């Protein structure tokens, strides 16, 4: 049974765009964001990211776990960097002096206005990137994944491999769940009991792993045979779906390309590649 990834953004404004837009926007936005260390400009990018994300109309309840994990993981990384960086702050202007508030107990890490803004800027950047990237997973029609990469210049063999992989992983997980349910019906206990140690627990999973892997291999062989019968790999292939940019697609792509160019120019000329610290955070400022 084939289980396609969840297409949560079906029918949304973003889902009606050419699927290449979703990939190119991520590339442009990430390249833009990594150049910006001015929190004022990063706030603008943050707002743009969530306007873009909202256009996908992805129900929050369907991605609550993904957002919870993303916010927790990003916060953990930022706080860990703040604690263990020993007070070092990157992207400071030349000859800048840190304005220290105090020192963390135990670790002795200085907490300054610059380190706080650095952490906030990092957190804002990562969350904005995630907001732009999530529609790529949930608002891109799985049926056009292969042709999307092919039209972006990826060789058709690799594009087709990406398409098959995107379909295989959910199917493999579904087969695993079905096998677990079938083995439990037969009385197999996969958890609990007196079994201790990783080796013993792994042995208990063998009745589930073996049939799941065998089914996956058998399914892969069937796919290979079907592709061989259709002479796959003997020449260039065409795709059933034709992709064309419309006027809205060109405007969206042009807007993000312009944003990339503007951020690059600003990083070289206006100092947005350096950390900006608001004066109200500076003691006595």
Please describe what this structure looks like.
The protein has 285 residues and is mostly helical. Helix content is 60%, strand content 2%. The chain is built from eight helices and two strands. It has a two-stranded antiparallel sheet. Strand 1 and strand 2 form a beta hairpin. Helix 1 runs parallel beside helix 8 and helix 5 packs antiparallel against helix 6. The model has no long low-confidence stretch (mean pLDDT 85).
Rg computed from alpha carbons, rounded to a whole number of angstroms: 25 Å
Can you give the mean pLDDT? 85
Q: Spans with pLDDT under 50 lasting ≥5 residues?
A: none
- Taken from the alpha-carbon principal axes, the silhouette is flat
The level of helicity is: 55-70%
The number of helical runs is 8
How many extended strands?
A: 2
Strand content: under 5%
Can you summarize the main beta sheet? 2 strands, antiparallel
User: What is the structural class?
Assistant: mainly alpha
Strand neighbour order, sheet with most strands: 1-2
Measured between the Cα atoms of the first and last residue, the distance is: 65 Å
- N to C succession of SSEs: HHHEEHHHHH
